[in-house]
Amino acid sequence: MKAAGLDVRQDEAGNLIGRLPGANPHLPAVVTGSHIDTVREGGRFDGALGVLAGIEVLRTIREQGFTHTRPLEVICFTDEEGVRFGTGYLGSRAMAGLWNDEWLSLADIDGITLQQAMSEAGITPAHASAARRKHGDVHAYVELHIEQGRVLEHHELEVGIVTSIYGHRWLKITMYGQADHGGTTPMGLRRDAMVAASEAILGIEQTAIDYGGVATVGTLQVKPGSINVIPGEVIFTVDVRHGDGEGLDQLASAIEEAVRQCAIQRDVAVNITMTDSDEPVQASEQVTRAIQRACEGAGYSPFMMNGGAGHDAVAMHALTDIGLILIRSKDGISHHPAEWSSPEDCVAGANILLGTLLLLANN
User: N or C: which end of the chain has fewer CB within 10 A?
Assistant: First the structure.
């Protein structure tokens, strides 16, 4: 950011912010950005594209002397993915005024709390909420991201414009059975937590299909974890998503009920907690129109689509109008080392981002 000629600062939540003053520095800023944290075994484009493209766009605007009335900012948000502590969008939520001090007690699989991790990174946990920006400080937020799906590739398109982003519910489910000797306990006398969890997971899959949403069991812990011991405890997580707020609530409730019924049938206990949630988000008509115009100006046909993945734009929606530009993902692969978007598609997204920011900054 400094090499691009931007004024750089770090806020109280650890977000890195590069700013390019406008002709009227007192106007609300037009902001872009994303994140650079990844999931385990993740790819190189998820999030990083939006940060690097944002820096390049602001560098180009400065070097080419493009006129912009409003200030421009690019932000590298902290911990968007939420993998380590089970709650995502930490940086963008703090900026949008959604910080919750209860998150500080969340711990990773090694027992390190978020409070400890922030302190070790040189961030004062007690001050994180001070990263909040006032309503009116930000005119609009536009994020460039890879699609992480196959829609654009299916339609042979480089770029899409998101009109709405799925909401989500994250569930942590623990099933408690009885750990017993695997050789001496007859099948009919077992209270096997793993078998109960397996049936529950199949039920979750069918429930998501029935309710028109998606659900993913992404982590699974089996205890005590020995080859000759019947599992006494299984912990797994469920990522539940839907494009409609009411539909999301219904799907999450139906999944919880399906899991409880499996527990009853298998004579095991169950505990279900919601670790994170966000409502579906609608993109701003004003920002979407600007992206459409930028697409047409760059020679691309505007293609409207829903966004199934969560992004920092979801949290920023609580602060300002948002828009989301997606570029094609090869084979739809994401959250995997094989994640790939071509240089040509990255350039297309960056050029549309450039046009969009200039339109909004001169509005």
Answer: C
